[in-house]
UniProtKB/TrEMBL annotation:
<dbReference type="Pfam" id="PF03168">
    <property type="entry name" value="LEA_2"/>
</dbReference>
<dbReference type="InterPro" id="IPR044839">
    <property type="entry name" value="NDR1-like"/>
</dbReference>
<feature type="transmembrane region" description="Helical">
    <location>
        <begin position="29"/>
        <end position="51"/>
    </location>
</feature>
<protein>
    <submittedName>
        <fullName>NDR1/HIN1-like protein 26</fullName>
    </submittedName>
</protein>
<dbReference type="GO" id="GO:0005886">
    <property type="term" value="C:plasma membrane"/>
</dbReference>
<feature type="domain" description="Late embryogenesis abundant protein LEA-2 subgroup">
    <location>
        <begin position="82"/>
        <end position="186"/>
    </location>
</feature>
<dbReference type="InterPro" id="IPR004864">
    <property type="entry name" value="LEA_2"/>
</dbReference>
<keyword id="KW-0472">Membrane</keyword>
<keyword id="KW-0812">Transmembrane</keyword>
<dbReference type="GO" id="GO:0098542">
    <property type="term" value="P:defense response to other organism"/>
</dbReference>
<keyword id="KW-1133">Transmembrane helix</keyword>
<dbReference type="GO" id="GO:0009506">
    <property type="term" value="C:plasmodesma"/>
</dbReference>
Amino acid sequence: MSQITIKSPKHCGEYYKQGPKIDKNYKKLFLALSSFLTAILLLSITIWIILRPAKPQFSLQDLQIYQFTLSPSHVNSSLHLTLLSKNPNRRVAIYYDDFQVHATYKAQQIASDTSLPPFFQDHQEANLLSASLVGNDIPVPPSLAYEMGRDQTLIGSFVLNLKLSGRLRWKVASWVSGRYGFNVNCASLMAFGFGSPITSKQGTQCSTTM
């Protein structure tokens, strides 16, 4: 015959006492982990509030137009620009990622997007950025050629906008933030000329939004 083992009420009581002990251990672990994550979050927020990173500053140093011809339906262009990028922060460095630039006239893109290599900018550091922009048979509305002729006849000059977009990361000591998108707009007043290239040297401050 097989032996039947029946636990006494004492044994059952000891078994049920072990359950709450295990639950308490998990609860303590959960509270400790939550407290640690909360402390890290509060520390990051405190550092952010104290340091208050300022937006990077950009200015257009030089713009050369080698070609800018408009037909009723297409545009061909060739430009070269030089920008000055400055980090105004004393304690915050910047990583620049996914940096792209293109040119527009009357809100119409006249040159294809050109990528700039990612780079690191230390505290209060300034860097010169250069890019060549080219547009081959970019479709445009017929009204753009009319607008160009009107600018040449009535004003004798035209405004080109250099548009930059990308993502950056803030760096404080060994801590690096997530990525933040930013956009830069630089306007340049160009005079019509018969020579090539048309050159504009200036220190125009560009607007930056994040």
